[in-house]
Structures are given as C-alpha cells and as structure tokens.
Amino acid sequence: MNWGSQSVPIWVVKVGSSLITQDGRGINETLIEDWAKEVSTLRAHGVQVIIVSSGAVAQGMITLGLRQRPSSIARLQAVAAVGQMGLIHCYQAAFAKHGQQSAQILLTHDDLRARDRYLNARNTLTNLLALGVIPIVNENDTVVTDEIRFGDNDTLAALVANLVNAHRLMILTDQKGVFDQDPRTSDAAKLIEESLASNPVLDAVAGSGGKWGRGGMSSKVRAARIAARSGTDTFICAGATEGILLASFKNQATGTWLRSDTPPIDARKQWLANLPIKGRIELDPGAAHVLRAEGRSLLAVGVRSVSGIFSQGDMVSCIDSEGQEVARGLTNYSSSELDQIKGRQSREIEGILGYLVDEEVIHRDDLLPI
C-alpha cells in the first residue's frame, strides 16, 4: 500500500443521511456498528480515521415525527439539536464495543475560514488522533446561519480532508459510485471506475439528492475537487456494502476513484505559498539551520526577534540573522504573544502567558522551506 509522503495515513470517511437513517426509517445501528468494527480494524493496520457524519437533521425529523424537511433556519437548528443526541450516542456505543473512544466535533464554515480557528480545529483533530480517539464530525446545525452553511456534509468532509491533509476521502453513499448515466433510469449506465476529479465530464453525469440529505452525486464531485486541492484522492462507493472500508484498504472495493492532479505535499506547499505574509520572525543560527536543513518545527527558544503585527494563524516569514528568508509558515502565536516567549523553552510558555496554545511556534506541517 503506497501512502505517498505521509508516515501515518489519514482517512476522512463521510457517511450520508440516507444510509444513517435508512431513508427515513430511523438510525441504522447495525450499519454504524459494522463501520465501527471496520474502522477499528483499519486503526490496527495503522490508518487514522475521522468520520464526518450526516444525519442529525434527518434523525431529528424522525424523532419529532416531521415528514418534510423544515425550510427555516431556526426550525432546522432545533431539529438538528434533537437529532444530534441520538446520532452521537449510537456512534459512541458502537465504538465502545471495540474498545475505541470517540469524540464529537461540530464545525461551521467560519471555523475553517478564519485561520486562527482553522489551526485550533486542526490541532484538536490531530491531538484526538494522537490520543487514539476517533473524531465524529458534523456541521454545527444548531448555530449556523444561511450565509455560512456548508450546504452539505460532502463539502464539510472535503474541507476536513484539506484541514488534516488526508490521504483519502471516502464518501459512503447509497449508490455504487458515479455512473455515466443515471442508473435509476437507464439500464445502460456504466460505473466510472476512475477519473481525475477535475474531469469536466463528471459535471454532466452527476445527479441531485433526495429529501433526507442535501447533497446528491453532484455535491460529491464538488467535494472531490475541494479535497484534491490538498492532494487527497476521493473514493465514492456504496456504504452499505459489507466490508466496504476494508475492501477499499486492500484496493478491492467497487466504486469511483476521483484522483487529485497534485501530490499531497506539493498541493499543501502551493496553498501555503499563496498566503500573504503578515510579519517576520528572526531566528538564531541553530533554528535557521534546523528549518533549512531538516524541516523541523520552529520552537520559541529559536526565535530572536519579532517584527510586524500578526495574529494566530497568520503567515509569517522566518529569516536568519542576515535577513535571508529561511522558511515561511502559519504561526500558532500572535506577534505580542511571541514577543513575550521568544528565546524561551516550550515548558516555560504556560507560565509566561498563562496558557499553552502549542509547544511549537510553527508546526513542521505548516512550514514552507524557501
């Protein structure tokens, strides 16, 4: 199995509403338990998994006896709050049977649009994975407004894939994949087994979704293109198929591969390179060498001085004592915070600031060597 540049592969597994709620009949606990068993096996094989699950609104509709999806945001928020309780309980119980801990993560578009929240969300997810916990992510339907909705959890899953630089986005749906014609109306429809996510032919063959979810195959194609920005490949498949996750792990599953044009490492570098620089950090010779030659994270002890005004999550330029740029990256600390902790050991940061955002000023995954 070739995982590219990642030492530990990360999969984002997106589960659709129609699967979770059995097309409106209630939460499919058996299917969730099957996925939990497979995810546990994947983890034993060294794959880290984040689940992005739809179903809160759909389950809330069932619990409240609603036949039509509410049209007002306020009513949707209330319905989602009801449904989220039952949904997350099922996941928690299913993973507990296999000795796995799970955690609920609720996100809005703003959380991934603002760089400080972006870093916080990513740090939370990566720390959960490091602790052996399986994050269960959903859109925070209880607080979003119409202007900042993801629109569907396919998009959310793709953005999470970008967030953690995932190797693979698995979209589990009620279809086998993307067909060249609508398989519901044409017996001649053929499965598209593999394509570049950027292929314009996909736009003509993707369909729309049903009443229990917000996204159809078209949203899944859009999600694959978003995921491809960070070099993530997307696999769209029938989530109710027994053993689908493990079959995919062995490259034996039936579905549609939508490939990224760009390897993950190059895609992330391109993204970082396009961000505006908000300030400068002067490094001591040791830190300059480590960043230049070894590509390791930047610690506060290696910082000599700070110039410019910047916030957590901003792009900053790292320079050596002669003013030559060594690298640039996303900072975990603002300019005022960094000015207080520069030259200090990581263990001293909490005593100085009263809190610890991260042991690294810039994590190696957020560094772009020059």
Describe this structure in words.
With 370 residues, the chain is an alpha/beta fold. It folds into two domains: 259 residues, 3-Layer(aba) Sandwich (Carbamate kinase); 95 residues, Archaeosine Trna-guanine Transglycosylase, Chain: A, domain 4, CATH 2.30.130. Helix content is 38%, strand content 19%. The strands form two sheets. The protein has an eight-stranded mixed β-sheet with strand order 3-4-2-1-5-7-8-6, with helices on both faces. Strands 10-9-11-12-13 form a five-stranded mixed β-sheet, with helices on both faces. Strand 11 and strand 12 form a beta hairpin. The protein is globular and about 70 Å long.
In a nutshell, what does this entry contain?
38% of the residues lie in helices and 19% in strands.
SSE order and pairing:
Layout: E1 10-15, H1 17-20, H2 29-44, E2 48-53, H3 56-64, H4 73-96, E3 101-107, H5 109-113, H6 115-130, E4 133-139, H7 153-164, E5 168-173, E6 194-196, H8 201-205, H9 217-228, E7 233-238, H10 244-249, E8 256-259, H11 264-273, E9 277-283, H12 285-294, E10 303-307, E11 315-319, E12 325-330, H13 335-341, H14 349-353, E13 367-369
Parallel strand pairs: 1-2, 1-5, 2-4, 3-4, 5-7, 6-8, 9-11
Antiparallel strand pairs: 7-8, 9-10, 11-12, 12-13
Rg computed from alpha carbons, rounded to a whole number of angstroms: 22 Å
Question: How many discrete domains?
Answer: 2
Strand segment count: 13
What are the secondary-structure elements, in order, as H or E? EHHEHHEHHEHEEHHEHEHEHEEEHHE
**Total of DSSP H or I helical runs spanning 4+ residues:** 14
Overall CATH architecture of the largest domain: 3-Layer(aba) Sandwich
Shape: globular
Largest sheet: 8 strands, mixed
Named CATH topology of the largest domain: Carbamate kinase
**CATH hierarchy class name of the largest domain:** Alpha Beta
**SSE class:** alpha/beta
Rounded to the nearest angstrom, the distance between the terminal CA atoms is 31 Å
Uncertain ranges: 1-6, 209-215
Strand order of the largest sheet: 3-4-2-1-5-7-8-6
The CATH superfamily of the largest domain appears as Acetylglutamate kinase-like
Helix content: 25-40%
Mean pLDDT level: 86
Strand content: 15-25%
